[in-house]
């Protein structure tokens, strides 16, 4: 592992944002102006939400899924509590609902609930989560002879004839709506299939071997007659684009959309990111897709897709007009029972969900005088809180503090390619504090718990996944080498694979222990600190190196800020890529009246962590002084503008995340210890046992510094009566994703 080079950094991944001409700050600031009214307007809002987990056991194309009914819940609670939909205007078809997601029920519900009720100017949302597929269509708009489909829960096969619901049918149905304000959300895909790592792909195999059933074609003919449209006219309209409104899809046509395991539940990676983002801030359809595309890289390689004319793409998400600001939220009260209430935790970032266990606290929006309410328990996305006084259902809850839970662990899946060594590997991983080995159990749920990485041999199948035009064969680790893969097996973790094909699994774990400790440290820091709920007013940006930095004549490369503490208008400048030979710095602005202490940490996908500020080489007093930033708009540059301070420099290819941390009290020792450990490991100056001891000490120090009370030791897994707290009023962390391309 190389030492930290002060002229080493990563290039900003601006391709998606730049395609729309938007900067990170513009997207967030723009989104904050689209807070929606809870009060029902004269416009009616109708939604049909379909989720299919269970498919007939005798079918040859599709396995069961896990997260589609959760997707429906995620969308339903969001529409009611953030967008003002009436519960009675939302119809749910799912395995858990009274109406099942059969073909006839889906088509009948679309006709009766949406087409027959929607009036001009009304808002319509159709959401489908389940398997997608393809069938033959000679004159398809894409010219590939295929039409994408979504698959109902009672799928029937008659040889190669299948009764999927075609995209062509969906086009006809949306054409029949009396309103143009239509949003179609599809969390399914048309490529791949089966299980991949710890995710399930929402597609069947060999879709291009099938054709639409006679019933499906007859249903389309019926709608052509009803609409008074002939086949050539329909074809021309489909070639132009969507029938009405916008279509937001979870993945590109040739990509895989996946079910992902989170902390105690499964959901679609796309739907979870979509709804969680909209709990924090509403936006245009275009801005929303741009934002979740950036965040998707942590969960899956899929890229969400927006199909809409420019005007509709820039309209408010779900076409709900701006009425008044409502506060962003992490949760909402859904049911009150005496002094307790059930809450829906839809606004919590996926990296932080584990920290919202027993003892986490919230502030009821509009009832701040009641003080904080405490989470008593959580099961998946639902929790129970204790109420000091009655609050009505529908009350939004904002995070006050999260907990440092013993359940906060780095979970490593053990791939079946490691054969008979599973038990030994599990024991060896379990000896590393806060690292848990999770055996592969096969079937529809590969791992009992959600996992962050997978320890595996590089099999021929895995290796083939990574080889494409951009990644040559000789760049991919060789067959039988042992290393770490992402949970969705979309990428291998750089630097984790040995060159020795004969390496034993136990030796591989000993070799990987320092990397696992680095990945654990990154996981803990991001889980505990990264939050949209932070209330401190702080801005940060990456700026290019030009002559008059102090005079504000700088090139803005990327920017971010705490959404709930944001002040002022968005800065202009768009989004730029950094050339490999371009110098740049961080700039942080403190809008609080009091001083704050700033830390900047860079996490690379291979597990390395670089502390930019405060510099680990300095003594404690110097580190505190260096990280202190006065308030009222005072700026800090890292590296500083001193002629002795060289700027950062883009050099290595790959993704990374820059985490900017602001706190009312300094915490420098834990970060300094972690950086020192990384440097010593890179130089080979510490044994594995010494590294483990130093890592344990460093992370314990860090947890103690950032929590409101001294953190329990990492090797103490017993639940205590009161877990350490991290309060959003005292600490804020937000990130800028970067990439060298």
TrEMBL record:
<dbReference type="GO" id="GO:0006508">
    <property type="term" value="P:proteolysis"/>
</dbReference>
<dbReference type="InterPro" id="IPR006311">
    <property type="entry name" value="TAT_signal"/>
</dbReference>
<dbReference type="Pfam" id="PF00656">
    <property type="entry name" value="Peptidase_C14"/>
</dbReference>
<dbReference type="InterPro" id="IPR029030">
    <property type="entry name" value="Caspase-like_dom_sf"/>
</dbReference>
<dbReference type="InterPro" id="IPR050452">
    <property type="entry name" value="Metacaspase"/>
</dbReference>
<dbReference type="GO" id="GO:0004197">
    <property type="term" value="F:cysteine-type endopeptidase activity"/>
</dbReference>
<feature type="domain" description="Peptidase C14 caspase">
    <location>
        <begin position="44"/>
        <end position="327"/>
    </location>
</feature>
<dbReference type="GO" id="GO:0005737">
    <property type="term" value="C:cytoplasm"/>
</dbReference>
<protein>
    <submittedName>
        <fullName>Caspase family protein</fullName>
    </submittedName>
</protein>
<dbReference type="InterPro" id="IPR011600">
    <property type="entry name" value="Pept_C14_caspase"/>
</dbReference>
């Amino acid at each position: 592992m190389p030492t930290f080079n002060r002229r080493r950094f990563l290039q900003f991944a601006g391709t998606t944002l730049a395609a729309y001409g938007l900067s990170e700050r513009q997207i967030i600031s723009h989104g904050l102006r689209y807070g929606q009214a809870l009060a029902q307007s004269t416009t009616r809002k109708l939604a049909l939400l379909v989720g299919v987990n269970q498919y007939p056991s005798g079918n040859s194309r599709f396995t069961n899924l896990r997260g589609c009914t959760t997707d429906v819940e995620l969308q339903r609670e969001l529409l009611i509590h953030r967008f003002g939909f009436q519960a009675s205007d939302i119809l749910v078809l799912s395995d858990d609902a009274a109406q099942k997601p059969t073909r006839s029920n889906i088509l009948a519900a679309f006709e009766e609930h949406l087409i027959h009720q929607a009036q001009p100017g009304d808002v319509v949302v159709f959401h489908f989560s389940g398997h997608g597929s393809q069938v033959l269509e000679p004159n398809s708009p894409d010219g590939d002879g295929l039409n994408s489909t979504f698959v109902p829960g009672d799928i029937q096969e008659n040889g190669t004839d299948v009764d999927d619901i075609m995209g062509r049918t969906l086009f006809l149905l949306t054409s029949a709506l009396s309103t143009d304000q239509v949003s179609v959300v599809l969390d399914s895909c048309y490529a791949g299939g089966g299980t991949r790592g710890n995710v399930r792909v929402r597609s069947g195999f060999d879709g291009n071997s099938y054709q639409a059933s006679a019933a499906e074609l007859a249903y389309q003919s019926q709608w052509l007659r009803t609409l008074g449209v002939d086949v050539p006219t329909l074809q021309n309209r489909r070639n132009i684009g969507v029938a009405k409104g916008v279509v937001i899809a979870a993945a590109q046509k040739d990509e895989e959309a996946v079910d992902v395991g989170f902390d105690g539940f499964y959901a679609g990676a796309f739907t979870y990111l979509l709804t969680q983002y909209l709990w924090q801030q509403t936006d245009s359809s275009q801005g929303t897709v741009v934002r979740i595309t950036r965040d998707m890289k942590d969960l899956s390689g899929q890229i969400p897709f927006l199909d809409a004319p420019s005007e509709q793409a820039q309209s408010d998400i779900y076409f709900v007009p701006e009425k008044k600001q409502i506060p962003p939220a992490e949760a909402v009260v859904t049911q009150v029972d005496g002094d307790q209430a059930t809450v829906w935790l839809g606004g919590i970032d996926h990296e932080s969900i584990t920290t919202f266990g027993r003892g986490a606290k919230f502030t009821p929006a509009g009832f701040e005088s009641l003080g904080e309410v405490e989470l008593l328990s959580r099961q998946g996305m639902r929790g129970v809180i204790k109420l000091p006084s009655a609050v009505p259902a529908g009350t939004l809850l904002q995070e006050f503090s999260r907990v440092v839970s013993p359940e906060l662990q780095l979970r490593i899946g053990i791939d079946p390619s490691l054969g008979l060594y599973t038990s030994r590997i599990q024991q060896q991983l379990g000896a590393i504090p806060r690292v848990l080995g999770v055996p592969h159990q096969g079937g529809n749920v590969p791992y009992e718990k959600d996992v962050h990485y997978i320890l595996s041999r590089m099999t021929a199948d895995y290796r083939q996944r990574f080889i494409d035009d951009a990644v040559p064969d000789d760049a991919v680790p060789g067959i039988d080498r042992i290393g770490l893969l992402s949970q969705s097996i979309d990428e291998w973790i750089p630097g984790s694979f040995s060159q020795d094909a004969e390496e034993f699994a136990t030796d591989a774990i000993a070799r990987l222990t320092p990397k696992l400790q680095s990945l654990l440290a990154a996981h803990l820091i991001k889980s505990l600190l990264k939050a949209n709920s932070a209330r401190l007013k702080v801005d940060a940006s990456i700026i290019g190196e030009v002559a008059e930095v102090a005079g504000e004549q700088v090139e803005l490369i990327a920017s971010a800020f705490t959404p709930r503490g944001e002040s002022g208008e968005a800065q202009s400048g768009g989004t730029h890529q950094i050339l490999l030979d371009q110098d740049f710095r961080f700039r942080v602005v403190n809008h609080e009246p009091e001083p704050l202490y700033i830390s900047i940490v860079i996490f690379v996908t291979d597990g390395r962590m670089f502390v930019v500020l405060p510099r680990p080489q300095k003594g404690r007093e110097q580190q505190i002084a260096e990280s202190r930033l006065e308030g009222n708009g005072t700026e800090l540059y890292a590296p500083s503008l001193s002629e002795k301070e060289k700027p950062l420099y883009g050099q290595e290819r790959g993704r990374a995340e820059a985490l900017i941390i602001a706190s009312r009290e300094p915490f420098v020792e834990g970060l300094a210890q972690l950086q020192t450990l990384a440097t010593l490991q890179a130089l080979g100056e510490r044994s594995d046992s010494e590294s483990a001891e130093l890592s344990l000490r460093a992370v314990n120090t860090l947890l103690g510094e950032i929590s409101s009370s001294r953190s329990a030791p990492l090797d103490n897994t017993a639940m205590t009566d009161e877990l350490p707290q991290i309060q959003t009023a005292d600490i804020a962390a937000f990130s800028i994703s970067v990439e060298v391309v």
